[in-house]
Amino acid sequence: MNYDFIIIGGGLGGLTAGAKLAKDGKKVLLLEQHDRPGGCATTFKRKEFTMEVGLHEMEGLYPRDQKLKMFEDLGLLERVNFLALPEFYRFINGRQDIVIPHQVEEVKTVLKKAFPGEEEGIDAYFWHLANAKRVMVLNRNQPEKSIGLFLDEIISNEELKLVLLGNLGYYHDDPYTLSWYYYLSAQNSNYGGRANYIQEGSQKLSDALVDIITENGGEVKLKKLVTRIDYKGKKAVGVTYQDARGRDPKEDSARADDIIVNSSIPNLAASLLSKSDGKALASQLSGQNIGASLLTVYYGFKKSLKEVGNKHYATFIFDPSIKTQADILPNNKSDFSTRSFTFVDYSQVDSKLAPEGKSVGAVCAIDYPADWENLSREEYLRMKADVADIFTGRCEQFIPGFRDAVEYVEVATSLSVKRFTLNPGGAVYGFAQNPNRSAEYLKALPENIHIASAWGKLGGGFSGAIINGYNTAKDLLKRE
Question: Which CATH number fits domain 2-46+201-288+430-479: 3.30.1330.10, 3.40.50.2000, 3.40.50.11540, 3.50.50.60?
Answer without folding.
Answer: 3.50.50.60
